[in-house]
Specification:
This protein is mainly β. The chain is about 0% helix and about 55% strand.
Length: about 120
Amino acid sequence: LMLAAGVWGGLVQLGGSLNLSCKASGFTIDYHAIGWFRQAPGKEREGVSCISTVIEDRTYYADSVKGRFTISRHNAENTVHLQMTSLKAGDTAIYYCATVDLLTSGCYPAGVWGQGTLVTVSS
């Protein structure tokens, strides 16, 4: 089971947009919830956004990204995307995708991690 994270343009100016992708191998995202986490230097890892299985059809967003980030799945590509807009300096971090448990209390890693991808928002 593998997740491969990618980013189209890792360096962006304040207020700009980026799209992260997370492609699964060895399993189908239809039946696994997938999420994005990030970790900035000197800070703890935080959950950013998660999407449930196709059957549950739910999403989760951290308060810090609500209204700016959109998570979606592209089933044919077995890929989850995170569209990030209105980027702030505080969004600078290494972003990781992972399989997750999406509960009413939040979104929690469930074991399979992709490699980190660096997002830098410059002023």
